[in-house]
C-alpha cells in the first residue's frame, strides 16, 4: 500500500467521565468523546461525512449535525469498533467517505438512555444456554475456562496471574477504576463470582464513551492535529458462533485466530513486529486465549509468559497497559477503550507510557467467543 | 420467580417435544454420520436438507464448568450451582447444570462421566445431567 492511500486516526478520545456517571445518557457519553476527538483533529463537523457506532447511527449523526454519506451500524458486541475501523478504512480508501467518526457510548452501569435488555428466549443461546442459570456474562463467557486449565494442568492460582499483571499497569493509571496492586493471594481472597473466577478476575460494569476519527493520510497532512496521526496498517474480522457451547474447541477461539492472522497479513507483519498489545479482557481467561491464538506464545504457555513479567511494565510485550477491561473500565462493549489506549500509547501520551512504542495490535471479542476484530496500528 | 424457559422455533420444536417425553433427540445427517447441534433443518457440513431425527444415548462427559455464586432468576435457592458444558458420546456439546453433586472444585472435575436427567419446568422440560450411575466408564 503506497503511503498516500494510508488511512490514519486523527482523533481519539474518551468521555470526560468514566465509571459511574448517572447524570449522562449513553448518547451524551458518546458525543462528549466525539466532540473531543473532532477538536483534537482540528476538524469541523462539516468535514465529517461518515458515522459508525453501536449507538443508533441516524440518531447519533443527527445529534451531532453530521450530513452523512456513510453509515455503519455494525453491532457484534464489544469488538464492534474494531470492525468499524476496518470498514471505515475500506470506505475511505475507496472514496466512499472523507472522514469517519467511530463512536461508543454506553451507560452500562447507570442504564441512562439505554434500551431495555430482553435476551431473546427463541435464539440459539436463549434456548440452549440461558435456561441453565446464566445470570450475567460472568456465568457464560467463563464456561470454557476449565477445559483450558485442565488441558494444561493449571488451576485457579494460575488464572489469577492475569489480574496480578494487569494491576501493575492500572496502579499507574489515575482513571482506572481498580488501582490496587494485587498478588495471587489477594486475588484469591476476593469474593467468588463463578469459581474459578473471583471478582477482580471479572470486569466491572461502568458508564463511558469513546470516539475515533479516521481520514486519509493525504487529508491529515493539511490538518492542525493536537497529537500525531496513527496509521491503521492492518485489520481483520471474523466470527465463530452464538455462544460458548457452539465453539469448535473450548481451549481456543477461531475468531481470535482468523481475525488476528488476517490483520497481521494485511499489515505485512508478524507477531515479532508487535511492541504493544491490547487483548479484550472481560474475564481473566481472555488474555490467555489471546496470547496463544494470536501466536505470541505456544499452546498452554500464556500463564508462564504472564508470570515471567513479559506483559507487565518493563516486559518484552506490554499488554493491556490501561489495566484492561478488568481494571480500567468496562461499559459492556469495552473494545473502544482498548483502541483509545493503543492510540494514546502510540502518541506517547498514555498514563502508563511504554517508552518509544511505535507498533500496537488490538484484539477484540464480541459476544461470548462470538465475533472478533483485530487492528494493527503504527506511528510512522 | 421461576426458572427461565426456552421458546422453541420450528427447527427446534422436535428437540423440546422429545425432552418433554424425557428423551434426548437431535437431527442427524446420514451422509456425514453426524448429529447436528443446535438443531437445524439441514446439515451445516454438506448442506443436505435430508436430515433425520435420532435419539441419543444421554451419556456424556464434563468438558468444562464453572460454579456460579451469583444465581439467575429462579435459581436463588440453589447457589452455588454447577454450570457445565457436557460433551455427549455422539459428539454435540450441551449446556446444562450438573445435579446431584456437591458444587465444589473438589467434587466436580473435567472428564467426569455424566448421564442425562430431565427437569420439568411447567410446559417445558429441559435436559440436565448428573454423575453417571450405570453403564461403562463410571
Explain the overall architecture.
- The complex is a heterodimer of chains A (380) and B (138).
- Chain A has 380 residues and is of the alpha/beta class.
- Chain A is built from 13 helices and 11 strands.
- Chain A has helices at residues 26-40, 57-64, 80-93, 124-128, 145-151, 156-170, 184-188, 217-220, 254-267, 286-293, 302-307, 324-327, 335-346; strands at residues 7-14, 50-53, 70-72, 99-107, 192-195, 197-198, 207-216, 230-239, 276-279, 359-366, 371-378.
- In chain A, helix 2 links the parallel strand 2 (50-53) and strand 3 (70-72).
- The longest helix of chain A is centred in the N-terminal third of the chain and has 15 residues, at 26-40.
- Chain B is 6% helix and 38% strand.
- Chain B is mainly beta.
- Chain B is built from 1 helix and 8 strands.
- The mean pLDDT of chain B is 94.
- A 5-stranded antiparallel beta sheet of chain B has the order 6-5-4-7-8, covered by helices on one side. A 3-stranded antiparallel beta sheet of chain B has the order 2-1-3.
- Chain A binds chain B through residues 121-122, 124, 126-136, 138-139, 142-148, 150, 156, 191-197, 243-246, 250, and chain B through 3-9, 12, 16, 37-38, 63-73, 75, 78, 80-81, 83-85, 93-97, 105, 109-111, 121, 126, 128.
- Strand 5 (192-195) of chain A pairs antiparallel with strand 4 of chain B, so a sheet runs across the interface.
Amino acid at each position: 500500500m503506497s503511503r498516500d492511500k494510508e488511512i490514519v486516526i486523527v482523533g481519539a478520545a474518551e468521555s470526560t467521565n468514566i465509571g459511574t456517571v448517572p447524570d449522562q445518557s449513553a448518547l451524551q457519553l458518546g458525543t462528549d468523546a466525539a466532540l473531543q476527538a473532532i477538536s483534537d483533529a482540528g476538524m469541523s463537523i462539516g468535514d465529517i461525512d461518515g458515522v459508525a457506532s453501536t449507538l443508533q447511527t441516524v440518531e447519533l449523526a443527527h445529534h451531532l449535525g453530521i450530513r452523512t454519506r456513510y453509515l455503519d451500524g455494525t453491532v457484534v458486541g464489544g469488538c464492534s469498533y474494531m470492525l468499524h475501523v476496518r470498514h471505515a478504512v475500506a470506505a475511505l480508501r475507496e472514496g466512499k467517505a472523507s472522514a469517519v467518526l467511530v463512536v461508543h457510548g454506553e451507560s452500562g452501569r447507570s442504564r441512562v438512555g439505554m434500551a431495555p435488555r430482553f435476551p431473546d428466549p427463541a435464539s440459539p443461546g436463549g434456548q440452549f444456554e440461558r435456561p441453565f442459570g446464566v445470570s450475567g456474562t460472568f456465568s457464560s463467557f467463563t464456561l470454557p475456562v476449565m477445559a483450558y486449565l485442565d488441558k494444561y494442568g493449571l488451576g485457579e492460582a494460575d488464572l489469577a496471574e492475569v489480574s496480578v499483571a494487569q494491576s501493575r499497569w492500572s496502579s499507574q493509571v489515575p482513571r482506572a477504576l481498580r488501582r490496587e496492586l494485587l498478588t495471587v493471594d489477594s486475588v484469591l481472597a476476593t469474593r467468588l463470582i463463578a469459581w474459578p473466577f473471583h471478582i477482580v478476575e471479572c470486569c466491572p460494569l461502568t458508564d463511558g464513551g469513546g470516539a475515533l476519527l479516521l481520514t486519509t493520510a493525504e487529508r491529515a497532512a493539511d490538518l492542525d492535529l493536537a497529537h500525531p496521526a496513527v496509521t491503521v496498517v492492518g485489520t481483520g474480522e471474523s466470527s465463530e458462533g452464538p455462544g460458548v457451547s457452539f465453539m469448535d474447541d473450548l481451549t481456543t477461539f477461531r475468531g481470535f485466530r482468523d481475525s488476528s492472522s488476517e490483520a497481521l497479513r494485511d499489515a505485512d507483519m508478524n507477531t515479532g513486529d508487535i511492541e504493544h498489545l491490547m487483548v479484550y479482557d472481560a474475564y481473566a481467561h481472555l488474555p490467555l486465549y489471546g496470547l496463544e491464538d494470536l501466536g505470541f506464545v505456544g499452546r498452554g504457555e500464556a500463564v508462564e509468559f504472564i508470570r515471567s513479567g513479559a506483559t507487565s511494565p518493563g516486559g518484552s510485550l506490554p499488554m493491556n497497559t490501561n489495566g484492561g477491561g478488568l481494571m480500567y473500565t468496562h461499559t459492556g462493549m469495552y473494545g473502544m477503550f482498548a483502541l483509545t489506549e493503543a492510540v494514546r500509547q502510540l502518541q506517547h501520551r498514555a498514563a502508563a507510557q511504554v517508552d518509544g512504542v511505535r507498533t500496537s495490535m488490538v484484539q477484540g471479542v464480541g459476544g461470548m467467543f462470538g465475533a472478533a476484530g483485530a487492528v494493527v496500528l503504527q506511528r510512522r | 420467580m421461576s426458572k427461565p424457559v426456552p421458546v422453541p422455533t420450528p427447527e427446534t420444536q422436535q428437540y423440546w417435544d422429545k425432552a418433554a417425553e424425557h428423551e434426548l433427540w437431535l437431527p442427524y445427517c446420514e451422509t456425514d454420520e453426524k448429529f447436528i447441534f443446535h438443531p437445524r433443518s439441514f446439515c451445516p457440513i454438506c448442506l443436505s436438507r435430508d436430515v433425520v431425527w435420532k435419539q441419543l444415548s444421554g451419556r456424556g462427559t464434563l468438558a468444562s464448568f464453572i460454579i456460579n455464586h451469583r444465581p439467575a432468576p429462579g435459581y436463588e435457592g440453589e447457589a452455588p450451582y454447577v454450570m457445565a458444558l457436557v460433551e455427549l458420546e455422539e459428539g454435540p456439546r450441551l449446556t446444562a447444570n450438573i445435579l446431584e453433586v456437591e458444587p465444589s472444585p473438589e467434587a466436580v472435575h473435567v472428564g467426569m462421566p455424566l448421564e442425562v436427567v430431565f427437569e420439568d419446568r411447567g410446559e417445558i422440560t429441559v435436559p440436565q445431567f448428573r454423575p453417571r450411575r450405570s453403564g461403562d466408564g463410571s
